Amino acid sequence: MALNRWLFLLGALFLIGVIFEVPVMVAFPTMLSVVFLVAAWWQSRSLNGMEYKRSPYYKRSFPGERVALQIEVENRKWLPLSWLRVVDPWPKAVGPEDEELMAPSHVQDEGYLTNIYSLRWFERARRCYDLIFRRRGVYRLGPARLESGDLFGIFECQKEVEPTEYLTVFPSLLSLKDLELTAEDPLGVRRTRRRLFEDPNLPMGVREYQPHDSFRRIHWPATARTGQLQVNIYQPVSARVMIICMNISTFARHWEGVNPERMEHLIELTATLAYRGVEAGYQVGLISNGTLSNSDQPFRILPGCSPKQLSRLLEALAGVTPVVIAPFERFLLQEAPGLTYGATLVVVTAVNRPELGEALVRLKRSGRRVIVFSVAKEPPPFIPGVNFLHRPYRPPAFTPERSPVSMSGTQGHDNMLKVETTKRDGKQAKIRGGVPGE
């Protein structure tokens, strides 16, 4: 409503009433002018000092899990609000359990979480919801739109609340039964001639004590038997470093498109291998020719032994998009010189092209140890010195009807590796980052 136009009209009526000495035409415009001025003043200050806060218990979780959400609105001023409408854009993939709570939106797979409040001075209101993380991805929340106005409902105003937030849904983890892997170590234990590290679980003899030896290595029975200090000798092993190289392509030619189900299976397989590697004590890294959300560059996560390394890996896999930056073979050869020497390269691919075999031969000649996990239909060609694990992807024979936002669901979630969706144990908190709300 244009206040200036109304004031001009009321001023004209007031002058007419004064000129013709009509009391009603003088009093009525005067009262309306006062109401309009108060309403305009109220409207201009209604959204000052307003705070809007979303507080999910976890910002990162696995598909199928329920996460508590608390929404808080606070009026931090003396001026009360007769009404306040909060419209928050919300992805349906991480929406409330009751989908009817969300208003429809013009954006696909997105709705509006709308709440209406009436707040007095310095009053705070809270609303609680149960979110369901339905599909892998990184989802943006906000910015929320606050709408309010004056006490009489004449004028309205609105503003957007920053900053935006993100909810991350990790990929599901496959079970050992699905992968047909051994429960100990999917990569096995290998000896090496280079004494990079020694494994205390693999003793190979004793020798005389030297000044630089630690007292922890002393073999006391041999010392008592010989009368001289003897220390243990352990089997040297290679560095326990594993770098997963994921080929995000699902067809031989990237311009043919993408198979969403096969790509999700590929990401779940990569996440499972990363989880198994970290649990087995490997320093796990990850490279891929795909891109992350809100990015146009391939990503690289260097191997590390940080307690949050697994969380970084799963968070990166959660944001993988089907956009292919470069052919995987060329990308792998370009990245190989910068990878840790002595690390085990685990190639995960859904396409077995001849160019990939040539790239693997070049990596093998340069002294790299390569293991290939293939989920393609056809078996990969035999390459001497390269360990191939062929696990072809088999789509489910019957797929139940799902909502438009439910692509990956919770397939294989009941048999996840030591990850239970019904428990908030220390391992789950470790994967999420260790702090609720992160």
In terms of topology, how is this protein built?
Elements: H1 3-19, H2 23-45, E1 50-56, E2 60-61, E3 66-75, E4 81-91, E5 102-104, E6 110-119, E7 124-132, E8 137-141, E9 144-149, E10 156-161, E11 165-169, H3 176-179, E12 197-208, H4 220-226, E13 230-237, E14 241-246, H5 260-279, E15 283-292, E16 298-304, H6 309-318, E17 320-324, H7 328-335, E18 344-349, H8 354-365, E19 369-374, E20 387-390, H9 426-432
Parallel strand pairs: 2-11, 14-15, 14-18, 18-19, 19-20
Antiparallel strand pairs: 1-3, 3-7, 4-6, 4-9, 5-6, 8-11, 9-10, 12-13, 15-16, 15-17
Helix pairs in contact: 1-2, 5-6, 7-8
Quick structural gist:
This protein is of the alpha/beta class and about 450 residues long. It has nine helices and 20 strands.
Description:
The protein is of the alpha/beta class and 438 residues long. The strands form five sheets. Strands 14, 15, 16, 17, 18, 19 and 20 form a seven-stranded mixed sheet that branches. A five-stranded antiparallel sheet has the order 5-6-4-9-10. Helix 1 runs antiparallel to helix 2, helix 5 runs antiparallel to helix 6 and helix 7 packs parallel to helix 8 (354-365). 25% of the residues lie in helices and 32% in strands. A hairpin with a 6-residue loop joins strand 9 (144-149) and strand 10 (156-161). The model is unreliable at 188-194 and 398-426 (pLDDT under 50).
Keywords:
5-stranded antiparallel β-sheet; 438 residues; 7-stranded mixed β-sheet; alpha/beta; 20 strands
